[in-house]
């Protein structure tokens, strides 16, 4: 007896599709529309084709911001992923201390991005900030508002302080999901702590690490609020990343056409690099 397929369940999914279309597809199509037009006012719009894309791709501001963005995201991943794994390995697994550690690790994630920037702006000030004033009293010349390296290090340390907890919590959940029989077998074989980490814990955390790498890359590549509040993109353009360059173009100069083309190029770069990360890590997992 052949069963008649029942497709009524698709009606339950329809609201999700409508919500995605309203919140993502329609704004995206609006940006695509702006990227191929030269807009003077509501009634004066001229089709320019791919002119804005060519202008944006040849813009040295895009090249400089893109290089800074890749360097920054690379530094974030190189620091936060190993640090998050190390913290997760040292966190207790049972008792009250485990709950306390989870609460403490979650606190930085609850702080709004603009508040994080404000906290570090005050904390790093050379005159009244605890960090800046302490370093200067120790004879270390520190001023994130005037020195490029100081600004870079401060923005990077701020991001590490804010987001390493996310990596640590993800890794901790991956460690807690490993069955105890693996550890029992390792104890029977008298495996060292390094051998347990290399052959049991790290392979079992690969999927969690994939999520951590993807989330931290995408978030660090789109960073805007924290460095804008802390340094305003300075000194000079030292901490002006892609999102700030895009904002200056769209809001500061009101160049809607080039800004729309810039945003689509920005989106495609994030999509491409994320896909490369995902492909590389999933292939490594299969091997």
TrEMBL record:
CDD domains in alphabetical order: TM_PBP2
InterPro entries: MetI-like, MetI-like_sf, Sugar_ABC_transporter
GO cellular component, as recorded: plasma membrane
Subcellular location: Cell membrane
Keyword terms, alphabetized: Membrane, Transmembrane, Transmembrane helix, Transport
Membrane topology value: Multi-pass membrane protein
BP GO annotations: transmembrane transport
TM annotation in the entry: 12-36, 70-91, 97-116, 151-172, 208-225, 259-278
Domain ABC transmembrane type-1 stretches: 66-277
Family note: Belongs to the binding-protein-dependent transport system permease family.
Protein name: ABC transporter permease
Lineage: Bacteria, Pseudomonadati, Pseudomonadota, Gammaproteobacteria, Pseudomonadales
């Amino acid at each position: 007896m052949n069963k008649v397929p029942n497709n009524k369940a698709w009606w339950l999914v329809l609201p999700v599709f409508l919500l995605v279309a309203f919140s993502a597809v329609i704004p995206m199509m609006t940006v695509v529309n702006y990227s191929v037009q030269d807009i003077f006012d509501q009634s004066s719009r001229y089709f320019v084709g791919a002119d804005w894309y060519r202008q944006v791709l040849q813009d040295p501001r895009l090249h400089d911001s893109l290089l800074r963005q890749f360097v920054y995201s690379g530094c974030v991943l190189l620091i936060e992923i190993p640090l998050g794994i190390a913290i997760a390995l040292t966190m207790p697994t049972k008792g009250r201390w485990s709950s306390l550690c989870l609460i403490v690790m979650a606190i930085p994630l609850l702080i709004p991005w603009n508040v994080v920037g404000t906290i570090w702006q005050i904390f790093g000030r050379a005159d009244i900030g605890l960090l800046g004033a302490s370093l200067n009293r120790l004879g270390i010349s520190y001023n994130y508002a005037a020195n490029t390296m100081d600004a870079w290090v401060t923005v990077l340390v701020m991001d590490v302080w804010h987001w390493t907890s996310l990596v640590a919590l993800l890794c901790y959940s991956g460690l807690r999901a490993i069955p105890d029989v693996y550890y029992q077998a390792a104890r029977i074989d008298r495996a060292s702590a390094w051998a347990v980490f290399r052959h049991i814990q790290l392979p079992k955390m690969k999927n969690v690490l994939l999520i951590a790498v993807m989330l931290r890359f995408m978030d660090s590549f789109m960073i805007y609020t924290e460095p804008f509040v802390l340094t305003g993109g300075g000194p000079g353009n030292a901490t002006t990343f892609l999102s700030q360059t895009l904002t200056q173009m769209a809001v500061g100069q009101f160049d809607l056409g080039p800004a729309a083309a810039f945003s689509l190029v920005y989106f495609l770069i994030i999509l491409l690099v994320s896909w490369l990360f995902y492909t590389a890590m999933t292939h490594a997992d299969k091997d």
